[in-house]
Task: inverse folding
């Protein structure tokens, strides 16, 4: 009896989350131009439409560029910063750890509005560059949280052993520290890519002419849910799943 | 001239000290063990030599050069870490080559020379067959060998070893003790070894430095430590002794005296203490288990005490008897299992020891 209850409630929860997604995937193969049930004919028509939609493809390109560059920059700043945060004790360290994490907890709309009024004042025009900088702020928080826990599990003797054998701090960082947290870095990078690709609130405020993918889809929705949206949503869903599985695999490996 | 000198080394964390006014001179080619209970400052001392901690005051001189303020990567000493600290991202060869690749300027080594040095090191620790393995794929004892090979590869002036055998099982530990000692002799290198295991220290060391609560209690050979402890701490820490408080009587010019314990007394010779004892002085006496001899109750001896067997512990090659003398003293006597008469719980025995075989300190 209890078993039936637990399996049943688990199934309900899963259905609650995934049934809408499955419906979208299913509709994406419909031949009709409105979502109607039951589906009378199946086709790849809407995938073809999507593949020929130039502004949609441009948006995909924009999103990929923003995601790639903001992830790379977030890692370049975040990895050494996290190492320093882990290694050195200074007054206000705890406070700094909290402040860096703020952008995750702060509503995106607040960050967005704040940057919208701040960026033009320091000469950053609204553009994909501004969007990228906006993303970097919260991606940094992701990088720091992911890596800080990894650094804490790293054997401190490894670093000392490297010094002991004559390696300078810089050599040690690149030949001993980085390779031993490699999987955590890859995991954090994949997570950053997904989050950046998906971001709406901050992006919405900082965008100029060039749309990112979520904003483009949002725009398309004003014409109603077209089956083309179903098709692109399906592809995004699949890509996200693949990346999440990869990211999980990498962070699991690091745990061993 | 000593190869390494620690002069007036002090190490404080805030207001609490870990090492206090430490002076130590280590000779070229010697195997020196720093021995002490946990928290005595032995590991901190080693870490100060390695450069991982800086002394609060005092100086460290290596081959006549003051290295007190140098970072670890500029000191010509290498460390074998307690948990080995092999680099998990590198295989055995790469681990051993790591230090060699760091050499710069005139010391820079060619790829060929690095390779041949790695070969030599692998052969030295008999691990040539494992060169491509990752550390995770090796047993504890094998990791240990690689850690030693990696530390020796750089040809350091001094090799520091921080409880390197702590994680190994007893049998392997004994075997590695012998290997380490013979390696040290073969290389002629100076080893500074830290352990809390007195047996390990007695087995391997040329000299032992016993530390307690941040202070150096005594430094000397295994023999000196064992037979002539300089402080009550050393007497208690090394070997298995019982300890009791007593009073000195009938002190003679040659140092001999009578020791009064409760209603009983026994003689001691002048060798058992350093400073002359005063008549009636309170003293603390340490008596080693193996110095105590038991005799059957009916034999004719000049034994000082009669006692009753309380407990028997069989330890293999020896048998440990707990013997009660009256209600005041309980001794532990070690007797070999072969040849010696065996006693049962409740047996009456006579107890004796030589007048030389105890250590007496003023209270």
Result:
């Amino acid at each position: 009896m209890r078993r039936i209850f637990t399996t049943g409630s688990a199934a309900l929860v899963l259905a609650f989350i995934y049934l809408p997604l499955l419906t979208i995937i299913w509709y994406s193969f419909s031949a009709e131009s409105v979502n109607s049930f039951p589906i009378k004919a199946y086709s790849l028509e809407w995938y073809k439409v999507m593949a020929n939609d130039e502004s949609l493809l441009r948006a995909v390109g924009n999103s990929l560029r923003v995601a790639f560059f903001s992830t790379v920059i977030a890692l370049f700043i975040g990895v050494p910063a996290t190492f320093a945060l882990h290694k050195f004790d200074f007054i206000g360290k705890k406070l700094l750890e909290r402040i860096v994490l703020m952008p995750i907890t702060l509503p995106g709309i607040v960050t967005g509005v704040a940057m919208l009024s701040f960026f033009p004042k320091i000469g950053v025009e609204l553009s994909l560059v501004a969007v990228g900088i906006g993303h970097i702020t919260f991606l940094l928080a992701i990088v720091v949280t992911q890596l800080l826990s990894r650094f804490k599990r790293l054997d401190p003797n490894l670093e000392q052993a490297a010094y002991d054998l004559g390696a300078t701090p810089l050599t040690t960082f690149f030949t001993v520290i980085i390779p031993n947290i490699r999987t955590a870095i890859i995991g954090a990078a994949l997570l950053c890519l997904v989050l950046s690709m998906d971001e709406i609130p901050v992006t919405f405020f900082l965008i100029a002419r060039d749309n990112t993918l979520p904003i483009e889809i949002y725009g398309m929705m004003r014409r109603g849910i077209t089956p083309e949206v179903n098709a692109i949503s399906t592809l995004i869903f699949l890509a996200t799943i693949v990346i999440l599985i990869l990211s999980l695999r990498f962070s699991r490996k690091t745990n061993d | 001239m000593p190869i390494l000198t620690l002069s007036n080394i002090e190490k404080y964390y805030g207001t609490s000290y870990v090492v206090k006014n430490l002076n130590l001179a280590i000779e070229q080619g010697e195997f020196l063990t720093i021995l002490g209970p946990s928290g005595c400052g032995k590991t901190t001392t080693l870490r100060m030599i390695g450069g991982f901690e800086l002394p609060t005051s005092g100086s460290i001189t290596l081959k006549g050069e003051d290295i007190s303020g140098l970072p670890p990567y500029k000191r010509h000493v290498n460390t074998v870490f307690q948990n080995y600290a092999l680099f998990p991202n590198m295989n055995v060869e790469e681990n051993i080559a790591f230090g060699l690749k760091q050499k710069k300027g005139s010391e820079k080594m060619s790829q060929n020379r690095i390779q041949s040095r790695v070969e030599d090191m692998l052969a030295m620790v008999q691990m040539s067959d494992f060169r491509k393995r990752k550390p995770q794929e090796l047993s504890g004892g094998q990791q240990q060998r690689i850690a030693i090979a990696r530390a020796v590869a750089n040809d350091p002036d001094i090799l520091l070893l921080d409880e390197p055998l702590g994680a190994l099982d007893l049998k392997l530990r004994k075997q590695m003790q012998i290997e380490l000692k013979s390696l040290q002799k073969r290389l002629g290198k100076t080893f500074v070894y830290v352990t809390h295991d007195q047996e390990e220290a007695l087995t391997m060391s040329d000299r032992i430095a016993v530390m307690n609560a941040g202070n150096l209690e005594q430094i000397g050979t295994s023999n000196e430590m064992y037979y002539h402890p300089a402080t009550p701490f050393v007497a208690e820490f090394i070997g298995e002794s019982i300890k009791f408080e007593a009073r000195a009587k009938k002190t003679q010019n040659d140092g001999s005296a009578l020791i009064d314990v409760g209603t009983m007394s026994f003689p001691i010779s002048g060798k058992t203490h350093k400073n002359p004892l005063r008549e009636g002085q309170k003293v603390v006496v340490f008596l080693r288990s193996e110095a105590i001899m038991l005799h059957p109750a009916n034999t004719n001896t000049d034994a000082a005490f009669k006692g009753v067997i309380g407990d028997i512990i069989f330890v293999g090659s020896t048998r440990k008897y707990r013997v009660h003398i009256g209600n005041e003293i309980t001794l532990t006597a070690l007797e070999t299992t072969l040849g010696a008469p065996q006693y049962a719980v409740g047996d009456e025995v006579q107890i004796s020891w030589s007048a030389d075989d105890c250590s007496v300190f003023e209270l």
Observations:
- Chain A has two domains: 1-43, 52-255.
